[in-house]
């Protein structure tokens, strides 16, 4: 489904930011600098409709088809659709994207690059569990939600010494929206955003590599130690990070090809052109807090696997005696490619020691070699028996074995053909499937039309247009369903904003109208208290007038004059022009009296009357 059209609403700005809900869930208003979009655009991540920068909204509301991510995650190798290895972390540990710290994202990027570029294998979950573990992130008895999960290297494992900075300034406030993209038949890669979701420790968080996995990973761990400790060719985490930044391939992206098939500038998985030296250094140095004197590695000391430096071939076990030297064959003299076994024997020592999970155990030459070994036929070229002399007894036995295997294969093929459905039957099945699909499409169209009509009716019901609000689609997708949902969602945002403002206003008025009562927690009950049968404003004005009259009596009494209050209270004998004249004479002294009284409003637990100090 395409992303929701971008929206704009013409309404007054919020006047009460203290009620913003992101404070409740632990989020802060996004503070993306002017430099951040330039950096993302330079990295090739600011593509059309791929990222949406937040405006001045006070709470996180990702559009349909979008998720919440952070700038520091993107510059450390994240891109959508995400790599299946990262997706596995979300489902195994039960966490969300925003709960991983930037250093944890960089750990996963380095691990994937290490496996694909220097170990020649896909990221292995058993190897990950042997090297890393996760823990909660907290400070001063405060458990974080944003960045609440930290990936750490196990203390008993000999791994690359990656010295990340202990603190990254302001990264939690640099959030934005990224479009969610799915791969294959999966519903989604990144879990739907829930800013208030709590981190629950699962049993999988404490999972360690089993003894079988440790044994299977011995070869990979040995290769990692060799990469770190080979004199003159030491590999480091800094070099690995600089490598994936230079080749412009995001390790955490669901790529078409693994990194050992990297094809240079024409590679389909590149997100941008090569970075300049200045841009690379500005991006790279904060990852490791490098000083100005420390140089960014221009290359790795170990040549990574790529299209120009392919994975080494695994040589089959040789059964030829060391004393017997193999004669040079006509194939080698002609300059043609050598057999797999010989090519592996003449490869460099560095390539020969590398762990290779993609050996030639399933190749055709290996099949003939294994068959020849079973028959007792020994030759390092591993060619089919038909190419050799049938005079020897071993050659004759090998030929018989191959003929027997060929006969078994033919019988299996004939049996498969006999059990296969006829062409006509397959056509009938296809016709029924097409008819069922057509009915399903018709049903889906009718269902979508009903949904559209209902959403439009709800939208008109929700906002009848009495508040002069105008809603516009900046880039409509010409999809009635998506456009109707977009307008309804915008109206819902405005309604939520008005509800928060209304709650704040009623909360401030409540202690003045109901001084001896407790404010209701439910908004509906709070509003209902302001809707009694009597006029609350009239009662409030009468109370204030009573206070003013009593204060006037107190001031007159303090002046020492003798006043007959019964006669003064008989207002029926006061003529209107005389009353105005008396009020006019009193205005000259009212300011001094008010300054003396110094009225102040009562608090929530006090009374509604005007008090004096």
UniProtKB/TrEMBL annotation:
Keywords: Coiled coil. Residues 1-31, 305-359 are annotated as: Disordered. Pfam families: Transposase_28. The keyword Coiled coil applies. Residues 409-443 form a coiled coil. The keyword Phosphoprotein does not apply. Residues 1-12 have a biased composition (Basic residues). Residues 69-135 form the Transposase (putative) gypsy type domain. This is Transposase (putative) gypsy type domain-containing protein.
């Amino acid at each position: 489904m395409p992303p929701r059209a971008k929206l704009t609403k013409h309404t007054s700005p919020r006047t009460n930011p203290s009620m913003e809900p992101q404070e409740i869930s632990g989020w802060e208003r996004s503070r993306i600098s002017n430099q951040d979009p330039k950096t993302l655009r330079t990295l090739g991540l600011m593509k059309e409709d791929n990222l949406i920068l937040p405006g001045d909204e006070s709470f996180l509301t990702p559009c349909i088809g979008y998720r919440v991510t952070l700038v520091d995650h993107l510059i450390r190798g994240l891109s959508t659709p995400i790599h299946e290895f990262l997706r596995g972390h979300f489902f195994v540990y039960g966490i969300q994207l925003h709960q991983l710290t930037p250093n944890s994202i960089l750990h996963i990027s380095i691990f994937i690059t290490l496996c694909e570029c220097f170990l020649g294998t896909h990221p292995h979950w058993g190897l990950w569990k042997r090297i890393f573990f996760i823990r909660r992130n907290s400070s001063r008895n405060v458990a974080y939600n944003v960045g609440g999960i930290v990936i750490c290297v196990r203390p008993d494992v000999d791994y690359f010494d990656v010295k990340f900075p202990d603190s990254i300034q302001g990264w939690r406030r640099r959030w934005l929206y990224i479009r969610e993209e799915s791969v294959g038949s999966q519903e989604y890669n990144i879990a739907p955003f829930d800013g208030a979701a709590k981190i629950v420790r699962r049993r999988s968080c404490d999972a360690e590599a089993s003894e079988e996995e440790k044994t299977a990973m011995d070869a990979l761990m040995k290769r990692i130690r060799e990469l770190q400790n080979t004199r003159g060719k030491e590999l480091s985490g800094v070099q690995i990070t600089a490598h994936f930044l230079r080749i412009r391939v995001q390790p955490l992206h669901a790529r078409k090809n693994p990194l050992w098939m990297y094809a240079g500038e024409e590679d389909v998985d590149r997100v941008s052109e090569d970075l300049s030296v200045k841009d690379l250094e500005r991006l790279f140095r904060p990852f490791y807090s490098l000083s100005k004197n420390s140089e960014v590695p221009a290359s790795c000391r170990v040549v990574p696997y790529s299209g120009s430096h392919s994975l080494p071939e695994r040589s089959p076990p040789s059964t030829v005696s060391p004393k017997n030297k193999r004669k040079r064959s006509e194939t080698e003299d002609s300059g043609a490619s050598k057999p797999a076994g010989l090519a592996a024997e003449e490869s460099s020592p560095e390539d020969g020691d590398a762990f290779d999970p993609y050996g030639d155990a399933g190749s055709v030459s290996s099949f003939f070699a294994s068959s020849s070994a079973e028959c007792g036929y020994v030759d390092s070229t591993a060619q089919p028996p038909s190419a050799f002399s049938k005079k020897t007894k071993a050659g004759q036995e090998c030929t018989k074995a191959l003929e027997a295997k060929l006969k078994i294969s033919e019988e299996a093929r004939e049996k498969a053909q006999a059990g296969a459905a006829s062409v006509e039957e397959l056509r009938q099945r296809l016709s029924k499937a097409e008819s069922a699909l057509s009915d399903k499409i018709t049903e889906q169209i009718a269902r979508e039309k009903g949904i559209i009509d209902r959403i439009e009716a709800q939208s008109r019901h929700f906002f009848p247009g009495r508040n002069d609000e105008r809603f516009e689609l900046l880039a409509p997708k010409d999809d009635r369903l998506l456009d109707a949902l977009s307008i309804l969602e915008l109206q819902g945002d405005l309604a939520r904003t008005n509800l928060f403002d209304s709650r704040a206003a009623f909360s401030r008025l409540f202690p003045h109208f109901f001084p001896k009562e407790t404010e209701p927690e439910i908004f509906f009950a709070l509003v209902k208290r302001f809707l009694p049968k009597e006029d609350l404003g009239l009662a409030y004005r009468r109370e204030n007038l009573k206070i003013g009259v009593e204060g006037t009596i107190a001031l007159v009494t303090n002046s020492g004059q003798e006043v007959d209050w019964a006669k003064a209270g008989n207002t029926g004998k006061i003529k209107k022009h005389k009353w105005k004249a008396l009020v006019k004479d009193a205005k000259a002294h009212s300011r001094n009296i008010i300054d003396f009284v110094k009225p102040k409003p009562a608090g929530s637990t006090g009374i509604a009357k005007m008090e004096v100090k």
